[in-house]
Amino acid sequence: MTQSKEPWKSPIWRSEPAFLYSRRPLARYVGRPAAEFLTIEPAAGVVLVVCAVVAMLWANSPWAASYEAVWGLDITFAFGDFALHHTLQDWINDGLMAIFFFVVGVEIKSEIVSGELSNPRNAVPPIAAAVGGMAAPALIYVALNAGTPGEGGWGIPMATDIAFAVGILALFGSRIPSAARIFLLTLAIVDDLGAIAVIAIFYTDDVSMAWLGAAGALIALAILLRVLNVWSGPVYLVIGVLLWVAMLESGVHATIAGVVMGLIISARPLLDPQIAHARAQEMAKDGLTAEETEQLVKFARDAVPPTERVQARNHRFSSFVVLPLFALANAGVALSSDLFATAMTSTVTLGIILGLVVGKLVGITAVTWIVVKLGWGRMPTGTTWPLLAAIAMVAGIGFTVALFITELAFRGGDAALLTDEGKIGVLCASFLAALIGALAVHLTAPKTPRTEDADEDERAVEDAANAGLGLAHCCSQRLEPRVRPDLWRDAVLAPQNLMSQPPATKMPEDTEARKFLDEHTPEDTVRRYPWFCAAWARLAKNALESGDDVAAYAYARTGYHRGLDQLRRSGWKGHGPIPWDHKPNRGFLKSLHQLSRAAAAIGESDEAARCAQFLRDSDPAAADALT
Fold first, then answer.
1. DSSP character at residue 506
2. % of the chain exceeding 90 in pLDDT
3. Which residues are within 8 A (CB) of 394 and not within 5 positions of it... i.e. 6 or more apart?
4. C-alpha separations of 494 from 497, 523, 571, 574, 585 in Å
5. Cα 276 from chain centroid?
6. Which residue has the higher pLDDT, 182 or 5?
7. Do 461 and 599 form a contact (C-beta atoms < 8 A)?
8. What are φ and ψ of residue 580, in 5° steps?
């Protein structure tokens, strides 16, 4: 449901609303627009760009000395005889960035357990593409810098910036197939994992075995607590802080502690969600006491995987505090004419630019082509090879992690100059990759998210969704569904009166559904299961369980619109309860339920919420039975 434009009028407020929901001008014209801005996908990338530009302007302004003074400020934390001395820039790079890598570790864990990386057939192409996208840029850089003082920077062009890359695709909205978004996200996550491994193995000097042993003991303790089913967040927080200190003192980069703790966090909920939901429904029947309300809060918390809760709590802090501070502290390069001229002829700068702009394109596209041709995986659904190549160009944006590695890569007398050349290379390459990649995506992505002969009721659903209406509001409009004659000419249409008992319809078995999922499009399978839309719900459920979220979404949408057509023919006006005691209507509600699940699986959270709300509005009892 859309939020009211006048939230201060809601009767929920006891006396007056919170500031953000008040009618004060500062809240209406600054607070709420800012809060809405933070929820859009490209927001983190926009903030990063602004901070990078500010850093560059600051470092090249008359106040350039203050830039060095601020980020070079020495900050000391002392605990008895033990003290940590670092500059403000180092505290950001070693301390706050550990939080960023912790969130990355949590995302990797979620993907491995229940995401794209959990299904080998879906995971192989983006994983292989990530490997190719790391190897090709590194090889290009080494080819230009082997035997030179800058050869240690080979790890710089390997990294893809998640926030920027995903933000670029988000600019094109529904023109980008959901499977293509997931491909890029998975690729970027694996890419970051590879960058983390490079940092740990190749950019670590002067290892202290005593501190490294202490770090190993702390990791073992955290794993033991997970095995013993200890779920207390503060316990792991204390272990994480101690692990960070041990890693920092060991010589291994301290941000590795964040990744390790992220991988240890459980990606499975403590409570069974269905049982917790049923228990909550039972408790709420006769009203709730204060103790029961507190128990419901625990149910809601513990029925969600900790990885999801951690991402929800830390994602914005990481994206809008940690990374902007990192950009401010590291993107400022004093660009004199001599330095810029030197950088433009430097093999370090040239290697980074070619590695990110050309190497990513060649490595990702070539390896994906090989994997698909060998049958080890399949192309993302709805993605053409030109679009895949455009996405590979977008993956050449290496801003955050590339700058991070630049600070670690060079040693010796020319380290400062090489670092500046490396930063210039990263900034130029990221700008070129973003510009060229966005143009390529614009040229290769589908011009419209729907075909011209889409059903009229489906177009109305999309129009209403774009207007911020819920599905229940949309379906209350007077729609006259048109059935495509080419698609349904061989289909047996449902009887006009759906209140009568329908004829027996064969439901697809799991293996049969899997076969159709692999070998046919939803439009092909419609000829075999033309009438009973519950079959579409079953296909969607099987596809979700097998990890093919995009196909599940297509199946569920087909079942939903086929069921909507049937209900219209029976005289249902788009509002009021849908009779749950007849099989065709159960099929429609099941399809709607699977559509909500599939939309959530592919990241369309708004549509998932609308579907769930429509299901509950149509029949609360059916919603309880299905969820």
1. P
2. 14
3. 165, 168, 169, 184, 433, 434, 437, 438, 440, 441
4. 8, 18, 13, 18, 12
5. 27
6. 182
7. no
8. -90, -10
Give the type of residue at 341: A
pLDDT at 614 over 80: no
Q: How confident is the prediction for the chain on average, in pLDDT?
A: 75
Strand partners of residue 82? 79
| CA angle at 453 for the pair 452 and 457, rounded to the nearest 5° | 105
Residue at 183: amino acid letter: F
Asked if the model's pLDDT at residue 120 lies above 50, the reply is: yes
**Residue 268 has what pLDDT?**
86
- Can you give the pTM of this predicted structure? 0.61
User: At residue 308, what is the residue type?
Assistant: E
pLDDT of the residue at 466: 36
Inter-residue contact 614 to 472 (CB < 8 Å) = yes
* Burial track 27-62 (b if 16+ CB lie within 10 A, e otherwise): bbeebbeeeeeeeebbbbbebbbebbeebbebbeee
Distance, C-alpha 341 to centroid of its chain: 39
**Segment among 187-196, 217-226, 322-331, 507-516 with least mean pLDDT:** 507-516
- 8 Å CB contact between 537 and 586: no
Place of tokens 């939230």: 7
Pairing mode of beta strands 82-87, 74-79: antiparallel
Across 109-121, b (16+ Cβ under 10 Å) vs e yields: bbbbebbbbeeee
Q: How far apart are CA 126 and CA 371, in angstroms?
A: 10
- Quickly tell me which residue has 């911020």 as its tokens: 468
Report the distance separating Cα 192 and Cα 401, nearest Å: 8
* Count of positions (residues) in the chain: 627
Segment of 134-143, 180-189, 379-388, 599-608 carrying the highest mean pLDDT: 134-143
* Helices 456-466 and 549-569, packing angle to 10 deg: 110
